[in-house]
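Q: Two folds, back to back.
A: First:
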Amino acid sequence: MNSAVSIASLGSISLLASLPFASAVLAQAPAATAQAHEEEAEEEEQDDIIVQGTRSRRRVQDEPIRVEVIVREEIEEKLLMRPGNIAMLVNETGGVRVQVTSPALGAANIRVQGMEGRYTQLLADGLPLYGGQASSIGLLQIPPTDLGQVEVIKGAASALYGPSALGGVINLVSRRPGEEVEGEVLANATTRDGQDLTAYLASPLGNGWSGSITGGAHRQSRHDLDGDGWLDIPFYGRWTARPRLFWQGGNGASAFVTAGAMTEERQGGTLRGRTAPDGRPFAQAQNTDRLDAGLVAEFPVERLGALHLRASGMTQDHRHRFGDAVEEDRHGTLFAEASLAGRSDATSWVAGMAFQSDSFRSEAFPVFDYTHDVPGAFAQVEHDLRSDLTLAASARLDVHGEYGSQLSPRLSALYRPGPWTIRASVGRGFYAPTPFVEEIEAAGLSRLEPLTGLEAETAETGSLDIGYARGPLEGSVTFFASNIDNATRLEPVAADRVRLVNVEGETRIRGSELLLRYRWNAFSVTGSYVYVDATEPAELGEGRRPVPLTPRHTAGAVAMWEEHGKGRIGIEAYYTGRQSLEDNPYRSESRPYLHLGILGEIVLGKVSLFANAENILGVRQTRYDPLLLPRRAPDGRWTVDVWAPTEGFVLNAGVRLRFGGH
């Protein structure tokens, strides 16, 4: 279970007031004592985690904005389970759910606190290296090998990062090289005939310079587990490479440069010689080539503070195949930002300007081409009213070339009486619609009507977070709420045509998260529970309905023993409750299921051997219902939505070799 330090996020003031028990809890917060503050300070000195994604660079325990940090130890645990991508790494964070969007290709996106995956901004070291709107396949193309920590900001973060962060931000922070040469090689294989080979090398280069390089090769064979002729596990082959350069000046100046390259072939759909229910073969495939580069730099400015510069560029070429239809396209993102940050007594501030351009070009359907140029200005102020009370305010004005000017404000507060931590936050954000909702990413553009008359999607979100930590015990409870206006949804206009429209009325999300953890020497036990009540306007004005594929109840329990230099063993269980289903002829509500896993690692000096049994109970959606629809949906899909695992039981094992370092 991922370590997560809670800090309350977002909403409007009316939303925050609607959170269960919010006022009562704040009123009954215990008083601080000098002894408690001293104990807390001692604990903080032992575990300083600096947050990168909020610009203020405070320790995570000092951040007024709610941030959850997955540290390197947790990343290494998930690396042994799934070396090829970060899906499992983020999926086991409370309130975060990885939703499969295309079973034909295995594509998935990230849903934060019940909000659609397109609202989550995926960053690398604060840069949009995977695009302004990361594709569903993109999540599965990022290996966790060289990550130092992962930062999760839940709720509308447009005040920090603009229109792509309506639902939250996931910031992947790279590992920093140490003072000695170090590296590792990991080889992994699975019982579903999947293989992973990753390598990492980092070294100091002298005169303040250091560098690292990461590479990976990943392969998965195709499988039709239920014998219906449709692939339940698609084939893919992927290569990745990412070099990084770091520079640290003597006067506090620093710079970071990165570049990345990835190429992947992915194939799904019907097996050769088999057909879809209409009697015709339907092969589905996607070839991807991505190149990106980024820069982050900081320079001290006399009497003012520090100048921060960030810039990146990304281009991604796709060749899609949906049956007989072939679609070739290119996505591009250009980003630049300059800001000035400083601190005076108890007040820290940041102000700056940014520009981002997201573009799409399709050879087959140029009617959907777009270029969204978005210049913006932002400011953030944090003030320590007392040693235990901090207030923060931030705002951003974006001038969107298609959807006009949008103001995104955010207010946050942090109160730390003794062993308690209370954070509250309210905010607003917006999202600029594109054709790429989940169904279109799964089925292509061939059946989509040209976009007309769309308005920006907006949301007000709020949360209250109450945490307690003393000695080996840690716990937190979070209440969150969101109101989304002008949400987009596909609407059938014929048997084989759909259009994208703004939904009249609000999508409302209310929920809570509970986390409890106990540590005793090398042993830890973690329990979590998430409740989400998400509703949206029904079609044809027929009241409200549950948001599809959003389980109301999820829970997890993890027991882990870990000792450095010896190994680890862990047992985890995750429960997923019933989900409302849409356009599924076999059922209107999913079955609940339990996911069990066991991980073991033995360390023998610089070599470690590991094995991981995933989904021990063999839960598989096709054990209950067919994956294939009786007839092709109006949007072009041949499959129902995925509400449970499709790969069944999987065992993976491998070896990791480390060298250099301490």
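A: Second:
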Amino acid sequence: MPNRLAQATSPYLLQHADNPVDWWPWHPEAFDEARRRDVPVFLSVGYSACHWCHVMAHESFEDDGTAAYMNEHFVSVKVDREERPDVDAVYMEAVQAATGQGGWPMSVFMTPDGEPFYFGTYFPPDARHGMPSFRQVLEGVHNAWTGRRGEVEEVAGKITRDLAERELSTGDPQAPTEETQAMALLQLTRDVEPASGWFKGDTKFPPSMVVEFLLRHHARAGSVAALEMAEGLCGAMARSSLYDQLGGGFHRYVLTPRAGGALIPHFEKMLYDNALLCRVYAHLWRATGSDLARRVALETADFMVRELRTEQGGFASALDADSDDGSGRHVEGAYYVWTPEQLREALGDDDAESAARYFGVTEEGTFEEGASVLQLPQRDEVFDAERVASVRARLLERRAGRPAPGRDDKVVAAWNGLAIAALAETGAYFDRPDLVDAALGAADLLVRVHLDEQARLTRTSKDGRAGANAGVLEDYGDVAEGFLALASVTGEGVWLDFAGFLLDHVLARFVDEESGALFDTAADAERLIRRPQDPTDNAVPSGWSAAAGALLGYAAHTGSEPHRRAAERALGVVKALGPRVPRFIGWGLAVAEALLDGPREVAVVGPALSDEATKALHRTALLGTAPGAVVAAGAAESDEFPLLAGRPLQQGAPAAYVCRNFTCDAPTTDPERLREALSS
């Protein structure tokens, strides 16, 4: 019989709706029930594409004996971290403070008042490698709760007080300087592996936001080292098993084998990674003209539209790492890996032998059970381009017959904002109006489903139905960023207006007026044991960095001093953290580059955007590499954009104005002169 999760909109929660565990969603009634029964709360946090979440669910939460013990002695609460990033952030901070590490599934035991006292991540069904079994943990917590309650409550109170008393130092209230950016670049050069191009470390996540900083720093300061590092990182990612060499798109991360050899991917595909990387590769192409960057940007965009777009026009959150291997087993990576025999079946002997060399498929295998993950280990191509395309098409067709990974159809506002920006710009750069249309479709869904009458955002939706959880700071910042990119690409000022509505909420509900610091949740949001606040970028731009970037872009479009001042104050944290931990504040550093450059404001005026001369100027403006530049395009004296006011045609011809702080250089009607103005 389904439990209380059967009414959820989260695919992750729905995966647990038939567990024998009597799960509750995160809700005050769950904690009231724990008080009534005088039992602790067990909080389990995960997400749909999480491999070890599925493992623990199968081993423990689907086990009748374990579930019966949980139901008798605990109130069990299941949370999708993607729906409630605030809950995840608060308790992950406690887990990391107590254990020195974190991860998912996250397992937290707490009092009925939400005060945590025991922590962990994945627990196996049997004790192993010095790790207790999950049943041992349950029994130990129950015994402590019933036999040493005073101790437990003292520990819980101390942990809660310690969390509440933690103060985030925002550093110098002044914005970052040239020195800040140069020191960050120097630190990054120390973190790179010269031979591979990757950053150091056994676990390698795609550093998309750092690459964006490097590209912007090169554009502004002319740093050859920054561009070389960006090219090295992007080349390493695109050639490795992090990238799906057949279908396009990136996996979550790769691991370095201890004995050397091929990188081993964790196969889940997340919307946010692919949106950020699509935009980065498009920007790399814009800076260098690289064929590799062009191919990866377009293939990643096509992957998102083909495999993640929902019927309602939004973009689903993720594809699972696991899938059926054809024998009924649910295996990580089964959809993506190949053996030499499978290549022969798909291609025939001659092409299979060459494909094996080209993609690094070996008899021993580079993954598990003799299978290999496709990568491009050789720099000298074995095939010509036409033959490569033929082989890839045939392998992709054969792969399409395999059981596909599950898809998390939940639409997350923030990640859709990232996708809108990536698809709008990629479509504009490469003359792909279908990609711009996909961005418009997602933006329309966000307006129709995620925005209420007061322009407050809902965090998620599914099947066109809004979820129950309020948007957090990253939702407001990333969606505003997407709308600003869409406004620049389409020349439709309504998207600038929508961005303004969202950013007004940021100023009113997320900013500490005294310090200029930003909180991850609104002032009127649900109260947790601590109001989350984290300026560091992780897998996605922090809400702090995302909001700062959108505030700065909106100020450049409109001349709004309150928005610019809020962005500058927020960027003070970059001055504090950038030189020390640049890999964890990459988007903040990228926004700082835009601030140091102006950012530049480009007004393109003409009789209509369909006019060929106007289109040429508009395209040139969009392809300019000036960091964070905003583009307003439309009819002269149009009221669509403030930047167009007072910007007439030049002798009846379309013209472009390049400005900083609404002070403009002489207008030009020549696309080449505009290009030069945006490159200096």
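Q: And?
A: The longest strand covers residues 41-46.
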